[in-house]
Amino acid sequence: MTVPDRSRDIPVQRHTIFQSSLMTALLDGIYDGELTIGELLGHGNFGIGTFDALDGEMIIVDGVCYQVRGDGSATVADLEQHSPFAVATNFVPRIVREAPPGMCRKELSEFISGILPSENYMYAVRITGMFESVRVRTVTKQQRPYRPMLEATGDDAELVFSHTAGIIAGFRTPIYEKGIGIPGCHVHFIDNARTHGGHVLDFTLSSGLIEVCPGTDLQLRLPLNHEFSTARLAPEDLDQQIHATEVKE
Ligand SMILES: [Zn+2]
């Protein structure tokens, strides 16, 4: 009796991606969470998210969680700080490619699509290299009563970093996860000195390495608080809200 070869049926190995709260909760102005950075780091050494009161962009690289503020400056976050939304995983670079030189975000996104075993899984994506330019925005600390994210991010300043070495980290989320996450690529940047970064709007890569970690299991943790329990999590204009707050083009 021969053992059937199932390797063609299973293009990726089991791998868990952890997520706290929902994109739709953030859009609805649920900016305070009960998950600490210490707990979050227990779920992964790599990730992105934001902090309570929408106080900056989060990027986790090599097990260190950084907080990037409105002026683009980055500092190491305290383990006791809280996050209302974050995605993390223990990054295993299962697919590794040299980036074609001089690629902009759109071209690189197509290149990454071409190396994925399937559109139907989740992927953690890490790009390490020299960037011709990186255009970012950063959310700024909000005051209660919180406004919906569409209003809160309306006046975010954009910054451009030129000729900088650094890391882009984030996730490529399938369309069917819309609302839970942000469909497509959602990535944050931090430079090699770990002093500047933000939520990436666009970039051009001079040279670098692309590493991809496929995810098969989503561990979703919903906040246990009054705000989340009464939030509007299925708005009719979800596509438009996601586009206006995250893509900004
Ligand atoms: Zn972001």
Say which molecules are bound, naming each kind only once.
zinc ion
N- to C-terminal distance: 58 Å
SSE series: EHEHEEEEEEEEHEHEEEEHH
Number of helices: 6
CATH class membership: Alpha Beta
CATH names the topology as 60s Ribosomal Protein L30, Chain: A
Average per-residue pLDDT, rounded, comes to: 93
Describe the overall structure.
- With about 250 residues, the protein is α+β, with helices and mostly antiparallel strands.
- The strands form three sheets. A seven-stranded mixed beta sheet has the order 6-5-4-3-8-1-15. Strands 9, 10, 11, 12, 13 and 14 form a six-stranded antiparallel beta sheet that branches. Strands 2-7 form a two-stranded antiparallel ribbon.
- It has six helices and 15 strands.
- The protein has a single domain (about 15-245), classed as 60s Ribosomal Protein L30, Chain: A (2-Layer Sandwich), CATH 3.30.1330.
- The chain is about 15% helix and about 40% strand.
- The model has no long low-confidence stretch (mean pLDDT about 95).
- The longest helix has 11 residues, at about 105-115.
- Zinc ion binds near residues 48, 57, 186, 188 and 199.
- The site of zinc ion has 5 residues, from β13.
Keywords:
249 residues, alpha+beta, 60s Ribosomal Protein L30, Chain: A, 7-stranded mixed sheet, 6-stranded antiparallel sheet, 6 helices, globular, binds zinc ion, Alpha-acetolactate decarboxylase, acetoin biosynthesis, decarboxylase, EC 4.1.1.5
